Each structure stands twice: as C-alpha cells, then as structure tokens.
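Write out the 3D structure for:
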Amino acid sequence: MQICFLLQIFLDFISVYRLFACAKVELLVNGSPNKEGCTYTALCEIASSLEKNDVKSEIFHIGTGPVHGCTACGKCWEISKCVYDSDACNELAAKIADSDGVVIGSPVYFSGPNGALCALLDRVFFSSSAKFRHKPAAAIISLRRGGGTAAFDRLIKYFTISQMPVVSSQYWNAVHGHKPDDVRRDLEGLQIMRTLGNNMAWLIKNIKAGNPPPLPEEQRMMTSFMDGK
C-alpha cells in the first residue's frame, strides 16, 4: 500500500515537472514589411500573455528582401525543404518545426495578407507541413479599416490543411489602426490578443502534460476526379 502511494506521488511529480519545467516556446511570425509596426505591436501583446503563463516566445520577422514564389518543381519532396534558400522560407520552416506552437501575423492588403508572407507560407507548408502536425496555431491580422476577415481566413487555411489545432480568442483575431499608437488605443483588439495568448498557453501546456496526439489510422487518400482516380 505504501509503495503504491509513493509511486503515485512520483507520477504526480513527473506530470507537474512536464507541465512547468519543460521548455515551452511559441513562435510569433511578423509577416509585415514593418519590423516594429502594427502587426508587431499585436504580437507583443500576445507575447506578454504567454510570458505570464510561463511560455517563452520569439518574434520572427520575415524581412523585406525578395521572396520566391513556388515554381512547382517538386524538389522539396526529395530534399524535405524548399530548393530556394535565398529568402526566409527554410529558416521559418525550421523554426515552426522546433516550436511548441505558432502565431502568424500579417497586415491586410487589398483584403488579403501580405503577398510576400503568402509566397513564403505556400512554400513553407508545401515542403514541411508534415513536421507541423498537431502543433497549435493561430493567425492574427492588423488593418486600418476593412478586409480583415478575408485575410484572416486565408491564413487559417494553412493550418486546417496541416492537421494543426487552431487556437481561437473571444473574437476574430484582429487589431485596428494605421500606426502602432492606434493599435495601443484599440482596447478590445489588445484584449483579443491577450485572450489568444492565454488560450494558446493553456493548449500548449495540456499537450505537454497530457496525451500524445493520435497516430494516423489510414493511408492518406487523394481523389482528383469523380471516378476516384
């Protein structure tokens, strides 16, 4: 009886250790050409909530350099990364794979995310999405006035095709403003970011401490035409 009691204490200790002592790192992707603009301001609000929940974070800026679009060469199937290594694609893919969760942020341009960001994400997810499976993910957008839900929807689709649990907040994940100071006055938007950070931290901790993700039960099917071929 005493041995069982001590064993239970040990198992409880291991569970608590895994929950709090294991490193938990969230990657926050700044998909804006502005390194410290409105999108960055929103990501910083998420980072503050993560920190309060003992989850470390890193903000990764995609930069302003030229970005390749996908050329459908198929080389990534052979080398498990994009053949074009002159931009942020492969670095970003590696960072997402190494993180416990990811938030991707973008400004809204013509009701869509930043085109350079999408060109990167197309290649990141096509070449490496198998490494992101079951990793919690969220998207945020920054806009002056309109077009936000269309841009938000575009970003979410990268996650839902990759078996990544999508983390939500109390409203669609958006902040409004033309300048960072405008975003800081968007009290509801900032609260949405904080709630998102809290929910992300909660899910990461539960995954770290709880059950492993399910293994695939079936070989993946790919149907292109009505006859099933």
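Strands lie at 25-30, 56-61, 101-109, 112-113, 137-143, 174-176.
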